[in-house]
Design a protein that fits this description.
192 residues, Immunoglobulin-like, six-stranded antiparallel sheet
Length: 192
């Protein structure tokens, strides 16, 4: 038998500030979970790929991305928002895995993909942007069970009216098998 794993890759292409009310250091926190609490496996960030080099001379991007092991989430690198209509190219892909149990087939539960906009005041040191950041808005996608068999889709993320931004995101989902396992009987009797 094969172990089934759900892989969900999230590509964050661009953060476009349409009109945030506050200047500051921002980053995006991504996490996911099963909608049905009967599924006990956690979505874990498994792979991160920076598919375009960030502008190293740019003073608006500082630091690196982070995986938080306490809640299995991913945080983009902090970026500074100073004015409306500002574009920040993030160009990063995060791959989450959701293992299914050995006796489970394709999922019958939906997956909730959660994006949180995190913000720290601009007066804070850039080094302190991570610990001082707080969640200011949340956007969730519900991915239905049928889409978990395979999906490639553009999913724009919009937060609320007080945090008017557009995040260009594409989501790629595949159902994979990873290795095999064999059930070995405890006692084998041979007839003579």
């Amino acid at each position: 038998m094969f172990e089934t794993v759900q892989e969900i890759a999230v590509c964050i292409h661009r953060f476009h500030n349409l009109d945030l009310f506050q200047q500051g250091w921002y980053h995006i926190k991504i996490s996911m979970r099963w909608e049905d609490s009967g599924y006990t496996s956690l979505a874990t960030p498994a792979r991160v790929v920076q598919y375009e080099a960030p502008d190293l001379g740019c003073e608006n991007i500082y630091g690196i991305w982070k995986i938080d092991d306490t809640d299995n989430s991913f945080l983009t690198q902090p970026f500074r928002i100073k004015y409306a209509r500002q574009d920040i190219l993030l160009s990063i892909m995060i791959s989450f895995t959701l293992p299914l149990g050995e006796n489970e087939g394709p999922s019958t539960s939906a997956v909730i993909l959660k994006f949180e906009l995190m913000q720290a005041p601009i007066t804070e040191s850039t080094v302190m942007a991570y610990p001082k950041a707080s969640s200011v808005s949340v956007h969730e996608f519900r991915i239905p069970p049928k889409a978990l068999l395979g999906l490639h889709s553009y999913c724009p993320v919009h937060f609320d009216a007080f945090h008017y931004v557009l995040v260009d995101v594409s989501v790629h989902i595949s159902l994979m098998t990873t290795g095999s396992f064999m059930k070995v009987p405890r006692f084998v009797t041979y007839g003579i």
